[in-house]
Amino acid sequence: MAKLIKGVIFRISGRYQTGMQKEYLNLFSILISFIIGLSVYLKGRNRQVGLHFLIFAIIITLWSISLYFYNIPVLLSAFEWLKITLSLTIIGIFELFCFIIVISNISLKKFKLPLIISSILSVAIILALFVNNLITEGKSYLIILHPPSVIFFLLLFIYGAFGAAILFERSLKSLGIERLQAMYILVGFGLFLISTTVLNVFIPLTTGSGGHLWLGPIFALLLVGFFAFVITRYYLFEIRVILMKLFVGVMGMILLILPFLIPSFNLKILTTIIFLLFCILGHYLLKGVDEESKRREEAERLIGEWEKLTRAKDQFLLSLQHHLRTPLTPIKGYLERILEGTYGREENPVIREKLIEMKKLADTLYSLMEGLLDVQELKMGKKTLSLEDCQIGNLIEGIIEESRPEAKQKGLYLKFEGIPLPMIKLDKKRIREAIWNLVDNAIKYTNRGGVTIITKIEDEKLKIAISDTGIGMEKEEIDYFLQGKLFERGGEAKKLYGPGRGIGLSLSIEFVKAHGGKIWAESEGWGKGTTFWIELPIKIE
Amino acid sequence: MRPKILIIEDDRPTIKLFEEVFSMAGFEIEVLDLGQKAIERLKEIREGKREKPDLVLLDLILPDMNGISVLKEARKYPETKNLKIYALTNYSNPEFNQELTKEGIDKILIKAQYSLKELIAIIEEGLKLK
Predict the structure, then answer these.
(1) 4-aspartylphosphate-modified residues are where (chain B) (predicted)?
(2) Chain B residues with beta carbon closer than 8 angstroms to that of A327
């Protein structure tokens, strides 16, 4: 004996007494592990996660089978089966590490080589060092650990700690579902490490018996089931809360019973302390989960509320459109009839001029409402674009001709520096409206100089720039614009004009967006002019 | 003989304008300002108590019901099935338009979209078709 105790003697496992129920339980858990693994792989939404989970489940299944045959040896001796069990244990841990990496959205590539080397090294250590130093003692096996086997435990520790660290970081930094997922896997991983240590090291070391080993596959099954749940059902939070409580409860019970099963007094105290620590940890864990659950409920309630409000807003806009148009009909109608001379000819040229102005404004009001309605319906998906071949150069020239009187009145130049462009498929009416609004704004916000329109093609995209020498935009204002906050205008605009570029711009943005394009603004700052860019994908069919 | 137009419309200023414009254009017009009144009129037409109008201009938003119900009622019976009915409204909504088309509306006109001249031209064009 003395010769053998050179290294640390380590009782790894012993055969347990066979009993019918335990055997059935074991076979049952083998079957279920495999079925869970397969169904997650087939039904899961993330193929890679599902695949690694399946591999893990298969390893657990094989491990359970080898443990079963170790107990009731068939084909090979119990000793050979034990080698297989131990090798599978270590490979299972490494696969669990892969699973953690994949579910954390980290690329597995750079871990592949170290993992393969570690696996081979670990299995070699098991086969060469552990197993060759096994001695039998009744129904148990004893292992003598030599110094090189430190590498084995070091590897286990590194991967275990690294996996836990990744999960811990993710549970801190991620938000929402991802965070919960990481938290649950961390808990599962923790339970796995604890149960493995308790079953394979703690109990054998203290009791010297392997009678509890039938628990192994059951624990493994629980672990597989728990992970499967986290992968597939993570959106059903309530069920997870219940499962979580159940799990903490079961673990607590086991830790509570443990001191009564252990003969050594010191270890009784130790397990009691572990139990108390677990109670504290469990308390905070469940508290956190409950709070998360409440927050989630609140978020769901708010989403529901928001959807209701959006529907109400859409309905409101549609009925607003009806109510605003109703008085416009007689206003436009009577103006039309007055100007036609239906009620007698208006001789006063000033009154006539004002009436023409009023008619023009009523028409503008009408088309503005039409534009808003159009945008609303495009957004709601009730309308689609009507694309046709369009010569954008002609379109811009038309806009310039229309805007020229206003520019002339303000003493501004209006230039078009276009290049010959191919025919492009566009919704003419809406793109015209989008460019017109930008040109109109440019004139409105410029008091000296003028407006230049440039077209060019870059990366198969049509770019239209509308540059003015006007008041410019502050960086803050451009940021607002890019964030879609259109109705918060820069300070200077308020001084110059009343209602601003908001509504016209929002129409432009929506029409360009509907074409799959984008609009952005550039400005050197206050007083230095603004350039609005429209970018449209070129569709030639 | 002057063509008869039945206008189902509830907005007072619009009614006044239409009365004026359509009379001057040479139509004989009658205005009903409730959906219920329109339904009763359809019944009277069925029973032969009233003459059939040549054209019905139907507003879609009425105080007591929506215009589609009136259209459906008209299309239900053989006597009024072939009535020429134009929706003349400010309420344009693709879903609404779809339903109107399904129920067999003859035309959908947005009031403010047309000048009065254009509106009369459209109606005259419609009256020519039998």
Answers:
(1) 59
(2) 13
Asked if the C-beta of B129 comes within 8 angstroms of chain A's C-beta atoms, the answer is: no
Mutation pick from B14, B15, B17, B18 vs chain A, by most beta carbons of A within 10 Å, is: B17
Report pLDDT for A146: 66
Contact A332 B115 (CB under 8 A): yes
Return the higher-pLDDT residue of A48 and B3. Answer: B3
Quote the pTM value.
0.47
Residue B32: give its domain's CATH number: 3.40.50.2300
More confident residue, A156 or B73: B73
CATH architecture of the domain A388-537 equals 2-Layer Sandwich (3.30)
Cross-strand partners of A458: A461
CB-based contact A326 B16, cutoff 8 Å:
no
Phi, psi of A488, deg, nearest 5? -110, 100
CA A214 remoteness from chain centre? 41
Structurally, chain B folds into a number of domains equal to 1
**What is the Cβ-side half-sphere exposure of residue A256, based on CA atoms within 13 angstroms?**
7
List pLDDT tens digits, range A237-278: 455 666 677 677 777 777 777 777 777 888 888 888 888 898
Judge whether B17 is closer than 8 Å to chain A, CB to CB.
Answer: yes
**Edge-to-edge strand order for the sheet containing A8-14?**
A8-14, A140-145, A134-137
pLDDT value at B72 more than 50: yes
Give contacts of B 55-84 with A, CB under 8 A. Answer: 61
| A328, A334, A383: residue with CB nearest B112 | A328
Distance (Å, whole) CA A397 – CA A464: 13
Task: Count residue pairs from A and B with Cβ separation < 8 A.
Answer: 52
Residues in chain B with CB shorter than 8 Å from the CB of A325 are: 90, 110-112
- Rounded average pLDDT over A412-423: 87
Closest CA to A360 of A312, A307, A402: A402
A328 neighbourhood in chain B, CB within 8 Å? 90, 112
- Enter the DSSP assignment of A535: E
3-state secondary structure A417-456: ECCCCCCEEECHHHHHHHHHHHHHHHHHCCCCCEEEEEEE
Q: Using pLDDT thresholds of 50, 70 and 90, give the confidence band for residue A534.
A: very high
What range defines the domain where residue B95 resides? Answer: 4-128
Average pLDDT over residues A9-30: 53
Pick B61's closest partner by Cβ from A322, A327, A377.
Answer: A322
Is the pLDDT score of B54 beyond 70?
A: yes
Q: Distances from the Cα of B108 to the Cαs of A199, B94, B113, B124, in angstroms?
A: 80, 11, 11, 15
- What pLDDT score was predicted for residue A26? 65
Model confidence pLDDT, tens digit, residues A343-364 = 888 888 899 888 988 888 888 8
Task: Tell me the average pLDDT across B53-58.
Answer: 94
ipTM here? 0.75
The residues spanned by each domain of chain A are 8-199+210-233, 308-379, 388-537
Q: Look up the CATH number of domain A8-199+210-233.
A: 1.20.1070
Give A-chain residues touching B15 at CB under 8 angstroms. Answer: none
B14 near A CB under 8 A:
yes
Nearest C-alpha neighbor of A26 from the set A220, A251, A194 = A220
Q: Which residues of A touch B16 (CB under 8 A)?
A: 330
Residue of A nearest to B18 (CA): A330
Q: What is the pLDDT of residue B74?
A: 93
Count CB-CB contacts under 10 A for residue A136: 11
Which of A358-362, A382-386, A450-454, A495-499 is the most confident on average?
Answer: A450-454
What is the pLDDT, as a whole number, of residue B37?
Answer: 92
